Amino acid sequence: MNVNNCLLDGIELRQSALNWLLSDNPKQKVDGVIGLHQAFANQQVTLDTKAEIQPISMGGKTIPGRPLRPELVSPIAVKKRSMRTDEGRAALIHALTHIEFNAINLALDAIWRFANMPSQYYVDWLRVAAEEADHFSLLNSHLASFGYAYGSFPGHNALWEMVERTKDDVLARMALVPRTMEARGLDATPALRGKLAQAGDQKAAEILDIILRDEIGHVAIGNTWFNWLCTQRLLNPIETFYQLCLQYKAPTLKPPFNLNARRKAGFTEEELSLL
Predict the structure, then answer these.
(1) What mean pLDDT is predicted for residues 17-21?
(2) In terms of domains, do 122 and 90 share one?
(3) Residue 21 and residue 35: Cα distance in Å, rounded?
(4) Same domain, yes or no, for 4 and 130?
(5) N or C: which end of the chain has fewer CB within 10 A?
């Protein structure tokens, strides 16, 4: 799949998002998503919000497209390595790189899978996909400075498992992926940044500053569309959120919480008090 294909007039956004989701080449996926974002901004890409897209037309590939590596293992099987060694720091950066690769895929999935949302919903998630692609590139380039690349260490599939569970309801997706799973990144990033900075890896710390800034916006997009959907369906957001957590067996949220970042991402004081 050639990134230049994304720059041709007549390309439709949601079908293109599915195409890039199915790509199993990380470099091509990153370039393709950034190219799609640019082409849409240049009005070279159309948007059909009503189309019911069938992935079976993509040749029977699994969703999402994945490279042969990293090997996917249970989260408890991912080894913890010492931050005192280059290998240990590289393993942590690889784990973050893997999260960003998954985040590209979940944004693309949110675009193609759910029809009949307002146009701004698709614009928002396209921006998220492009920014996650940038994050992946920054981390993968830094990983190369240690002599490693994406796929050098095992990874787990917990984030995508929740994407799969919520594939039939956009309300559940918005509740449990951006504002639950991804919001945990807001909580965890400051401590990770501190560990890397303390270990002398200022470059990684600077990359995490960029990621935290952008992820606040991504969680805010999830909050925006979750609350919009609750309004459309005449649902109480807080009650609905906890019902969905139980229904879909979402992980229990545990402290510490980055309350300042969560406020910036649109969580209300009532929601924060319930944490």
Answers:
(1) 95
(2) yes
(3) 14
(4) yes
(5) C
Q: What is the pLDDT of residues 203-234, one digit of tens each?
A: 999 999 999 999 999 999 999 999 999 999 99
CATH number at residue 7: 1.20.120
Domain membership of residue 144 as a residue range:
1-157
Chain segment 46-104, per-residue pLDDT in tens? 999 999 998 764 555 567 888 888 888 877 767 777 788 899 999 999 999 999 999 99
Q: Are residues 37 and 143 in the same domain?
A: yes
Number of domains in the chain: 2
Cβ pair 33, 23 in contact under 8 A: no
* CB-based contacts of 114-120 (< 8 A; 24+ apart in sequence): 114/170, 114/173, 115/14, 115/49, 115/50, 115/51, 115/52, 115/53, 116/49, 116/50, 117/49, 117/170, 117/225, 118/49, 118/228, 119/47, 119/49
Among 98, 130, 157, which residue terminates a domain? 157
pLDDT (average), residues 13-39: 96
pLDDT in tens, 148-177: 999 999 888 888 889 999 999 999 999 999
In the chain, the amino acid numbered 239 is E
**What crossing angle do the helices spanning 119-144 and 13-22 adopt, rounded to 10°?**
30
